[in-house]
Amino acid sequence: MRLLIMGPQGVGKGTQAAKLAEHYGIPAISTGDIFRYNIKNKTELGLEAMSYTDKGELVPDELTNKIVKDRLAMDDTKNGWILDGYPRNASQVEALDAMLADLGTPLDAVVALDADRDVLMERMAKRAAEQGRTDDTPEVIAKRLETYAQETAPLLDTYGERGLLVAIDGVGEIDAIQADIVAALDAKVA
Ligand SMILES: Nc1ncnc2c1ncn2[C@@H]1O[C@H](COP(=O)(O)OP(=O)(O)OP(=O)(O)O)[C@@H](O)[C@H]1O
Ligand SMILES: [Mg+2]
Fold first, then answer.
1. Could you read off the pLDDT of 58-109 as tens digits, one per residue?
2. Which helix (H) or strand (E) holds 123?
3. Active site residue 123
4. Integer CA distances (angstroms), 178 to 82, 113, 139, 175, 186, in order
5. Active site residue 127
6. CATH assignment of 2-189?
7. How far apart are CA 14 and CA 5, in angstroms?
8. From the CB of 88, is ligand 1 less than 6 Å away?
9. How many CA atoms within 13 Å lie on the side-chain side of 104?
10. In the chain, which stretches have pLDDT less than 50?
């Protein structure tokens, strides 16, 4: 199973991706987590990425695409994977298309989670309190949501036109949402 999980900040992509990874026995790959790991460990990549993540801007495509390409080449990806937080703009969609064409491994589906802005803001405020992410300040959150609306949300149409989109309501109990996703995927990909 090769999946993307898409949706605005705070909608629960990481939470649902981890559960899907367990359900299907595939790795969940989050570009945001990879950047945060590198920032925490003060790697060269982390220092460069931080100058963008702390402003709520996208890390440059060249850097992000390379990270994904290297990650998809690792051994644990043979049975599939779920990508969380990538692609985020049209140029990353093109880059991913090229990677998957090279590997001969097409996408099976794109899970799109959605929720009202009030719900998203509330969840991110809670996460800021719990995890202290440096990009969960009100200003940076607003910037990230704006970037999402402008650059990422239009990609849902792209994948919809390809017949890959599975739209799921991201409001409700975590396990109920997970069950909705799995039911929709099993119906689609079987
Ligand atoms: N595909 C990407 N392209 C460019 N920058 C990215 C990409 N993925 C992550 N980043 C950078 O890392 C930051 C954190 O990403 P991440 O996906 O964890 O957070 P998010 O957008 O707040 O979503 P969520 O609320 O689901 O965690 C982004 O704001 C951006 O700067
Ligand atoms: Mg996340």
1. 999 999 999 999 999 999 999 999 999 999 999 999 999 999 999 999 999 9
2. helix 117-131
3. no
4. 14, 11, 31, 5, 12
5. yes
6. 3.40.50.300
7. 9
8. yes
9. 1
10. none
